[in-house]
Records
---
Amino acid sequence: MNTFIYSNDNKRYHTFNYASRKRYNTKVFKVGLNAGFTCPNRDGKCGYGGCTFCNDIGSGDFQGNTTLNLMDQFNKGVKIQQQKWPDAKAIAYFQAFTNTYAPVEELKQLYDPFIHHPDVIALSIATRVDCLDDSIIDYLDSLTKIKDVYLELGLQTIHDETAKHMNRGYDYALFKDVFKKLKNTNLMIIVHVMNGYPTETVEQMIETVKEVGQLRPYGIKIHMLNVLKNSNLGLQYYKKPFKLLSLEEYIDCVITQLRYIPQEVSILRLTGDYSHEDLIEPQWIKNKIMVLNGIDKKMAELNITQGDLCE
Ligand code: SF4
C-alpha cells in the first residue's frame, strides 16, 4: 500500500509523472524548444546581463537544437523520445529565455500552430511575470479551451534582496499581483524556485517554498543552483569561490520544503537539468538518481510526506 495518496510508486511527494498519467492516461514527455526570445533583464528593458546564474542558453538547461526551425525542433524531439516510449504524448515546451516577451499578435503566430498540432497534448511556456500583460494572459487562457497550457514562472525566491543580487529585474509584489490574475484563468501555473543561492540562508529558501505552496500553484519546480560557465555567477565563482550547499544539506532543505507544500500541488522537479560542459559546481548534481534516491530514503526514514506540516 502507498503511504502517500498522490503516489502509486511509493514516493512521498506528488510527482508530475503521477499527475500527468492520471490526467492523460499515458506517459508524457517534454520537447524543449527555443523560439529565439531574449529577456527584459538582458536587452536593457529592465537590465543587462540576465539573471546572474543564467548562461547564454537561457534558463541553464535548454538542450534543444537551435539551428532548426521550431517545428523541426519539435518533430526531431518527438522522434527521439518516441523511440523510448512509442505511445507517449508530447508537451511542446517553450523553454529557452522568456517566451511571452513579444506583442500578442506575434505570440499567436508562434503558439497557434502548436496548440492545433495533433502530436501535441499540451503546451508548456516558460516566462516571467513582468512579461504577462492582460492581453497576453487573455490569449493564453483562450488556448486552454483547446488543450492544457502550463505556464512556468521563474521566481527563484520571494526575497527581494536576493532578487536584486540575482538581477531578476522585478520584485515579489509584482509576482503576487500577476499570480492573482493568473489564478482566475485555466492556465496551469508552475513556479520555479532555487536553492543554494550564495547570499541566502537555508531558512530563506524554506520560507520561499512555504509561501509559494500557500499560493497553491498547479506545480512547483525546485532547483539546486548550478554554477555555470558563461554566467555572471560563474565568473564570480572563478574569482572568489563561495560556499555551495552539500548534497546532504540540499536533501535536508528539500525534504523540509516538501513538508510545507500542500499535497495536491504537483512537484515537477527536485534537481536541475544542466549542460555537462557548462557546469562548474556542484559536482554532486551530476548524479541525479543519487539525489532523488537520497530524498526518498530520508523521507522514508523520518516517516514524513509532502504537506505534512501544512496548516
Ligand atoms: S529570466 Fe530566465 S532565461 Fe532570462 S536571464 Fe533570467 S533565468 Fe535566464
---
Amino acid sequence: MKIVMINGTPIHGVTYHMKTLFLDQLKGDNQVIEFYPKDIPAFCVGCKNCFINGEEKCPHYVSVNAIWIAMLEADLLVFAYPVYAIRAPASIKSLLDHLCVHWMVHRPEPKIFEKTAVIITNSIGAPNGSAQKDVRTSLSWMGVSKIYTCGAGMMGDVFIDKMTEKHKEMLLRKMSKLADKVSDIKPRRRKSLKVNLLFSMCKLQHKMVLKSEAQPSLDNQHYIDNGWIKR
Ligand SMILES: Cc1cc2nc3c(=O)[nH]c(=O)nc-3n(C[C@H](O)[C@H](O)[C@H](O)COP(=O)(O)O)c2cc1C
C-alpha cells in the first residue's frame, strides 16, 4: 500500500519513535513517502487566490502541491506529531490552512473520499484529543470518512533515550494495535454518514449560490464538472 506520512516535528524523539514502530508493524509491502516541517509550506499569506483564482496561484503552490499529489496517490494518510500548547504544532496547522481549498465547501477531490487516515500524537501530559481534532476536522471536511487516532501521554518521559521500559512497551502496544487496524485497508467505496451529510449540505449550498451567479465561481464550476450539481 502507498502511505503518505506527514511528520509535524523534525526531531528524532517520541513522535519519530512512534511512527517508526507503526510503520514497522504494518503488514505487506508498503511504499512510504514522508514530509517533514522543512517540506511544509510557509504560513498562508491570506491572498485567497486559491479560492478565487485557482490553487496554482498560491505563492506556496509548489510545496503544497507536492504534498497534495502524494496524498491523492496514497492509500493511507498518516499524520504524526507532538502536542504543542494543547493543539497540533504550527507546521501541521500551516499545511491544513493551505488545504482549506479542498474542503467540501470549496473544491473537494473525489479521490479523497476513498482514503483512510491515521493520526498519531503524543504529549508530556495526558490529553491529546484537542490536538488530534485539528487534523481530524480538516480531514473530515475534505471528505475522509475513516480516521483512526492514537495518542500517548508520556507522563513526564520527555526524551526517547531515557524512556522507561514501561513506556516503551506502552508505545509498542499502541502502535501494533493501530497498525493491525489499517494493514489491509481498501479504497473506501462509500462515504460515512457524517461525510455524506456534510457533502449534501455543501451541494445544496453550491446549488443555491449558483442561481445568483452570472458566471459560476471556481468552486461551483468544480461541482458542475464533477456532476454533483447542474447549471
Ligand atoms: C512548544 C512545546 C509545547 C508543548 N505543549 C504541550 C502541551 O500543551 N501539553 C503537553 O502535554 N505537552 C506539551 N509539550 C510536550 C510534548 O508534547 C512532548 O514532550 C512530546 O513527547 C514531544 O514529542 P517529540 O519527542 O517527538 O518532540 C510541548 C512541547 C513543546 C516543545
